[in-house]
Amino acid sequence: MYSDLKTLIELQRIDRQVAALSSQIDAFPKEIQALEKQLHDFIHAHEERQQRLSANQKTRRDQEGEIQVIRQKITKHKDQLFQVKTNEQYRAMLKEIEGEEANIGSVEDQILESMVEAEELQQQIKEAAARLESEKTRVAAEKNRVESLFKACREEREQAAGERQKLAGTLDDGLRNHYERVRRGRDGVALAEVRNGMCTACNVLLRPQLYNEVRAGEALYECDNCARILYWREPLPASTEPDGQPAVAQN
């Protein structure tokens, strides 16, 4: 194979490696943010339940105080029963007392609902409090793992970038610039392997003469369709048994 073509193939391998590492590196900050958000959301939900429980308890105190006020009104009305002078006033007072007693029943129903809600909140708060430290530990461990991967990927990318610089320096300026121009215009892929007579990048069948020239590998050739630099590799031989016979797949 044409020596510069081997260099370009290796250069593209490194470029793909650098691109993959860069993609990983770009994703790490979002992954860390997602982990921090998980912990933040957990703590926020825990604090929100605590606030709801405090509001629930205050509401119950207010409701209990409201019942006391109503009972005082009822006691006062009952005392006034002995002071009314007509049956009409007596019946009106009784009706007012009944209304106040109905109000007490309504408020007591609300208190019962508040108590049920408080029990549920207390259970949720208890469970969340038990999980809080383990959640903090889990998120911290995950962040450490991601940060370690982030550091390793950056180091690997720096090493690959150094290798790329050395390799690119072995090419003449014209060929290197041509490679870079094709790479920029073709989503970072300047070279395409030829298989079964086709360009594997755009899946277009090559002209027979071009196919033979690419197989010979004595110069650089481009795909007529996508303009990528073409190369051909000798197919790997089929696996064989020690006696030289083709291997038989086992069911």
The CATH C-level class name of the largest domain: Mainly Alpha
- Spatially, the strands of the biggest sheet line up as 2-1-4-3
Computed CA radius of gyration, to the nearest angstrom: 40 Å
Class from helix and strand fractions = mainly alpha
Number of helical segments? 4
Uncertain residue ranges:
240-251
What is the CATH third-level topology name of the largest domain? Answer: Helix Hairpins
Please describe the biggest sheet, giving its number of strands, its sense, and whether it closes into a barrel: 4 strands, mixed
- Strand content range: under 5%
Broad shape: rod-shaped
**Mean pLDDT over the residues:** 90
Instruction: Indicate the CATH architecture of the largest domain.
Output: Orthogonal Bundle
* Total of domains: 2
List keywords for this structure.
251 residues, mainly alpha, Helix Hairpins, 73% helix, 5% strand
Tell me what you see in this structure.
By secondary structure, this protein is mainly α. It folds into two domains: 17-168, Helix Hairpins (Orthogonal Bundle), CATH 1.10.287.1490; 173-231, no CATH class. The chain has four helices and four strands. The protein has helices at residues 3-81, 87-168, 173-185, 208-216; strands at 191-195, 198-199, 221-222, 229-231. Strands 2-1-4-3 form a four-stranded mixed sheet. Helix 1 packs antiparallel against helix 2 (87-168). The radius of gyration is 40 Å and the shape is rod-shaped. The model is unreliable at 240-251 (pLDDT under 50).
Task: Tell me the layout of helices and strands.
Layout: H1 3-81, H2 87-168, H3 173-185, E1 191-195, E2 198-199, H4 208-216, E3 221-222, E4 229-231
Parallel strand pairs: 1-4
Antiparallel strand pairs: 1-2, 3-4
